[in-house]
């Protein structure tokens, strides 16, 4: 399907370009969001008449997006989620979840602006881009943790999953050492008891011999 772009679309073209796209992409994204028009003679004529106004409006929107983006660019947002010991989430974090969390800062973000190829399924710091406008992108960090304390540790640079694994390993080694020591003490006590029994038996046999 041939369309004329009303604004820049990443990996497709800039305002005024006539492009050929798949019908589904046109009907589901470009046309309903007002990013393009069907490249008919009537629409092309309309575009040329309105081109200056469209370019001015696009520049204004880009400036507004750049201004609002200053409040979240480089910021970190904490999201508390349940997860297993390996760091695997019980569920996932989607672009909708991220948009809602970032929007709580006061800068409105919708799910289509979150550049997320696949839902996030692990704990940790996840850096991603928010596309506030075709010409304006900002970078944010999503800090996914099981608690506020864990989020603070992650923000400070600690690998909480590795730290947990080290702690679990240390506990297991300590328990093994305690069991080993207990086993050694048991063997020593058993050996001592056996020795005492042998000594007592020997004494009894000696007394019987003398008798």
Q: What's the CATH superfamily of the largest domain, by name?
A: Ribosomal protein L9, C-terminal domain
Provide the structure class. Answer: alpha+beta
Share of helix among residues? 40-55%
Report the strand count: 9
Q: Please give the alpha-carbon distance between the first and last residues.
A: 119 Å
Per CATH, the architecture of the largest domain is Roll
Strand content: 15-25%
Query: Which residue ranges are poorly predicted, with pLDDT under 50 across at least 5 consecutive positions?
Result: none
CATH fold group of the largest domain: Ribosomal Protein L9, domain 2
Q: How many domain units?
A: 2
CATH C-level class of the largest domain: Alpha Beta
Query: Can you summarize the main beta sheet?
Result: 4 strands, mixed
Query: What value does the average pLDDT take?
Result: 86
The count of helical stretches stands at: 5
Arrangement of strands in the largest sheet: 4-9-8-6
- What is the string of SSEs from the N terminus onward? EEHEHEEHEEEEHH
Radius of gyration: 35 Å
Shape: rod-shaped
What's the topology here?
Elements: E1 2-5, E2 18-20, H1 23-30, E3 36-38, H2 41-69, E4 76-80, E5 88-93, H3 95-103, E6 114-115, E7 120-122, E8 124-133, E9 136-145, H4 148-155, H5 160-210
Parallel strand pairs: 4-9
Antiparallel strand pairs: 1-2, 1-3, 5-7, 6-8, 8-9
